[in-house]
Amino acid sequence: MLIYIFIIGLCFGSFLNALVYRIHEKKSLWTRSACPNCQKEIIWYDNIPVFSFLFLKGKCRNCHNKISWQYPLVELALGILFLVPTLFISYPDLKILISLLVQWLIIFDLAFIFLYDYKYQEILDLSIWPLVIFLFDFNYFFEVFSIVNMLIAVAIGGGFFLLQYLISRGRWIGGGDIILGVLMGVILGWPNILLALFIAYILGGIVGVILLLLKKKQANSEIPFGTFLVIGTLVAMWWGNRIVEWYLGLIR
Ligand SMILES: [Zn+2]
């Protein structure tokens, strides 16, 4: 069962790679995949997640142009991420099955935001508002969070970045971080939204220092902050309650 879920995750990773590329290039989603270098269509057995990359040694069969490491990495990441919510399941019933499907939807959408922001430094409305509307209704009907709880979390997530955006006139953060803050609010609710912001800033700081030490990047060049927000959201979604308990235990 777990292997089956892992393979489904790999396939969604493959789909995600194609989706991000095609949406950015404004290409049709319904054509066959082609090599970006020689434009030759990719045969199905060269399009198997991870394995084809290894078998072809990371090169196009036709033109031998290098295939980006992004492809197998994203596929593997989705395979692993799809497995994480199953760790929290003791016995499967209908309600848990539905929540599992919703978590996979959230994982896929957040992975899309991560990859798109990382590659193109942009967060698309398309990747935010449909899921915000869906989760707001879902969380209300299934009593995951109350409406007041979600409104507070949205006000914190969105308001926090809106304030920075207004103060810095868009120099510190992009407008995309504001709408991502809103999505984080409906995914996490109060108080986990605070934890996710906290994790994102710590992580961003650590990675920034490491890159400076390695002199990989100039101090003024930036990794899009949305990528750290996505990681903070996933960590807070899965381990938020445990982290808060652990922290409260420390200060008691
Ligand atoms: Zn090629």
Automatic annotation (TrEMBL):
Taking every annotated instance into account, which residue ranges of this chain make up the domain Prepilin peptidase A24 N-terminal? 7-84
Name of protein: Type 4 prepilin-like protein leader peptide-processing enzyme
Q: Name one GO molecular function term.
A: aspartic-type endopeptidase activity
PANTHER family registered for this protein in UniProt: PREPILIN LEADER PEPTIDASE_N-METHYLTRANSFERASE-RELATED, TYPE 4 PREPILIN-LIKE PROTEINS LEADER PEPTIDE-PROCESSING ENZYME
Q: Give the UniProt keywords, A-Z.
A: Cell membrane, Membrane, Transmembrane, Transmembrane helix
Q: Which organism is it from?
A: Candidatus Magasanikbacteria bacterium GW2011_GWC2_37_14
GO CC term, one of those recorded: plasma membrane
Membrane-spanning segments: 6-23, 71-90, 96-116, 147-167, 172-190, 196-214, 223-240
